[in-house]
Amino acid sequence: MIIAPDVCKRPLKERIVKPKAPATLKQIAAMAGVHPSTVSRALDPEKRHLVTDDVARRVAELARSLSYQPNRVATTLKTGRSRLVGVLLPDIANPVFAPILSGIAEALSADGYAPIVVGREGIGAHVEAGDAFAWRGDLVVGYGPRTEELALKHLATELGVRVQGMRITHPGMYHLDLGFCPLDSAHAMVCPSAFDDASARALLALVPEPLVLSEKEALTFCANSIVVGRTVVMPACPLRVRSVLEEWGFEVVLVEVGEFLKAGGAIRCLTNPLDVRLGRDLAPVPGGRVVLA
Question: pTM above 0.85?
């Protein structure tokens, strides 16, 4: 026989435990004996120098003990900056990514930023970073072989941007960065053979001056490159492609990555851009929007 504890005999209202309300700036200010604006400065890495070290330390300790979380909506409305950094993880349920995400969050927190993760808790559509480019205010995303179409909706809504979706159909060009490489705001390498007809037309229409790659040229992985100013760092560069790039004023630098090519990647696959900003590189779109070809 199972005997229920006495607490189960109490009226329901007595058994309900209300969650503790989150701490506010005013509460921390009262406990620290300072004005709320001082607390705000102490918790802002860009303004922390305006308060004394003792006050900054006292406020930080109180905020940490009370698990204070800033109201990011209010902060965004006031400053015009979200201070959120988008993190694309293919599967957060994979134990490999847990310490990586923890380190990212810790590093961002020190500077007043916070990560926003697409596909968190291992739930949701699969997305891979090799399929996404911030370009001309939009997030251009390839989908099909690796990234799932549903991921475009997650990216658009969670990041608050417009996503231009391009369906990849070529079996050997499984990521967008094998058939598309932005060079500057007007030029980009594009391989129409990587996409279905509608997506190929849409992508070419996005680029004012495209350098159209043949299937053979693209399979050298020349589009899997990175651009630093007017320098294009490439794993290979067919002669015609080099001629056009140099005519446009770009310098081509070749880097030997033959061993990495065996694993299916090249120059861009070895990098992870960290300077993409909402409002500068991506135009804010409240609620997000997905555009498919």
Answer: no
